[in-house]
Amino acid sequence: MSPPLRAAVIGLGWAGSVHAQALARIDGVELVAVADTDPTRRAAYPHLYQAADVTGLLGHDLDYCVVATPTATHEQVGLTLADAGINALIEKPLAPTLAAALRLAAAFEQRGLVASVGHTERRNPAIAELATRLRAGDFGDLYALATRRHSPFPDRIRDTGVVSDIGIHDVDLIAYLTGRPISSVAARTASLTGRGHDDLAVAWCLLDDGGLASMELSRVAPLKERLLVLHTAAGRVSVDAVTRTITHHTNAAIGAGAPLTGFRGMSRGRVISHHIEGPEPFHAQSLAFRDALRGRAHDLVTLREGVAAVAATEAILAAARLGTDVPVATSIIPKASHAVEESPL
Ligand SMILES: NC(=O)c1ccc[n+]([C@@H]2O[C@H](COP(=O)([O-])OP(=O)(O)OC[C@H]3O[C@@H](n4cnc5c(N)ncnc54)[C@H](O)[C@@H]3O)[C@@H](O)[C@H]2O)c1
């Protein structure tokens, strides 16, 4: 049996702590080191090797690192790891700008390293189930998709606004669930908190094949809401990612056994609601990274998909600034995102 993979977590705030807990629970991986610029954060891991930053971890024979530092630091931390030949799971958003995200993706690709970006929303059990059912054709043609993501103000996130911080999940989900890249966007944003970033946003996305998607984002809400609504040939399908529930308002205009293609009319049918159980998303992501490093089949989110998400959020911010539609750099957007890949290692 091979020895456990040696892992470290860099950045021990909210996300880093969740990663550390996930790594501690999976077989075949040993969390051996942590790094954080804040000594009080490191002190919570007295049994592990501790460093102040990424450079202090080099030379410790690590198989991979989780980068959970603020987004503004992802490029510097990630490039240091790539230069040292260390595989990495980098939190979302991959980088603060498209240019930085492209540099990161190129650095890991050129060295043939395993790298992924933490788009954990795909691993929410209800969203994973929705993706499976969409690909199986259960809902037929998908006409349009709308997302609503509201949160209270996250005092710890200071380097990004609502679009880059949480809207990044929605642009990734739109491309992942529809299987179509976002080709252009229009948007408006508002800043309420005086932190110099967008706190509210609405964005409209045109997909590669003319499909429609929209997003409504707030980080100044008194509640947490994560909602997706899909308009499909089989009726309306909504996912509440907080309660992990899928609700299908069926289309009675489609008879039993009728093909779910083309628009065949829409009328009110039965309402079917399911609570979906499944593994905790960070745990599932840790398992996928371990499997990728072990050369097993896996479903890691590629850095190119992370780049595509940053391209879309950057276009949304530009569209809001300019007040016009802005194209998304589709040439860098990857093909089918859900394919299970074999690791190059
Ligand atoms: N996938 C998700 O659902 C999810 C959820 C929350 C946050 N995130 C992402 O995780 C990242 C961190 O967010 P957070 O909420 O945990 O922030 P946080 O502020 O709670 O934690 C960041 C930690 O990094 C440390 N740090 C800062 N610069 C560092 C450096 N150069 N080297 C080492 N340590 C450094 C800080 O001291 C702090 O402990 C962000 O990119 C964020 O977008 C992802």
Automatic annotation (TrEMBL):
Domain GFO/IDH/MocA-like oxidoreductase residue range list: 129-232
Taxonomic superkingdom: Bacteria
MF GO annotations: nucleotide binding
Residue ranges of domain Gfo/Idh/MocA-like oxidoreductase N-terminal in the record: 5-119
Pfam families on file: GFO_IDH_MocA (PF01408), GFO_IDH_MocA_C3 (PF22725)
PANTHER family tied to this protein: BILIVERDIN REDUCTASE A
Name assigned to this protein: Oxidoreductase
Organism: Spongiactinospora gelatinilytica
